[in-house]
Design the sequence.
């Protein structure tokens, strides 16, 4: 039975797709059969991961090869109804250990469908105060789903991204988030790293592009922490 993780934030540019791809890549490197379901119509995860020629035969809801061991990707941006994405993923649970859903920057439509299809919600946030406002909106959406009778996602984790320990603002935001949300905030923090920004332009994961970069090592630590939950 696959463990399904929804990587979501209604803001763009917070490290959402970067986190989804890096987490999936490290899970695959550890030998876990991993599928990335790309629910963002921009298809950024697919553009990085899909093997040459694979997209020509790609249909929504059908995994395609990436050319990487233990790692697949799937177009999934068309499943807007709340129950539809879950129905699409259920037959795939036996084939994978992990399904990582990369959501669009929204809290509606397919993003909501992804949440109710997932065991857990991973929220990457920038280490800035505006991110705290957005985080409150996501938590309110999860509460609204509970009120509507949905029991998923069952768990919630927050990943601090673009962190700079040399900036007091980043340290203050990290402290505030941990004070309010406790162990829901991951210990691993992802630093600002140009390698994370440049990897997609080479159609590479961060492991392939710069395996010993600070960003890569931080995602390695985050994946180990993720696996021990």
Sequence:
């Amino acid at each position: 039975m696959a463990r399904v993780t929804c990587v979501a934030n209604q803001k763009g540019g917070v490290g959402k797709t970067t986190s989804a791809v890096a987490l999936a890549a490290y899970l695959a490197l550890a030998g876990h059969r991993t599928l990335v379901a790309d629910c963002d119509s921009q298809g950024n995860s697919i553009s990085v991961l899909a093997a040459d020629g694979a997209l020509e035969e790609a249909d929504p809801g059908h995994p395609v090869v990436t050319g990487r061991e233990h790692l697949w990707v799937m177009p999934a941006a068309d499943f807007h109804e709340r129950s539809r994405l879950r129905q699409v993923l259920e037959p795939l649970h036996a084939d994978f250990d992990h399904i990582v859903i990369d959501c669009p920057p929204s809290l509606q439509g397919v993003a909501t469908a992804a949440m109710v299809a997932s065991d857990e919600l991973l929220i990457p946030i920038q280490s800035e105060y505006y991110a705290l406002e957005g985080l409150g909106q996501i938590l309110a959406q999860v509460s609204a789903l509970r009120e509507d009778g949905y029991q998923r996602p069952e768990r919630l984790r927050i990943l601090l991204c673009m962190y700079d320990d040399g900036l007091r603002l980043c340290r203050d935001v990290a402290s505030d988030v941990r004070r309010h949300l406790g162990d829901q905030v991951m210990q691993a923090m992802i630093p600002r790293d140009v390698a994370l920004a440049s990897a997609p332009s080479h159609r590479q994961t961060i492991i392939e592009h710069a395996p010993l970069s600070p960003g890569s090592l931080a995602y390695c630590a985050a994946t180990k922490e993720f696996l021990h939950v």
Residues 3-227 form a domain with the Rossmann fold fold (CATH 3.40.50.300).
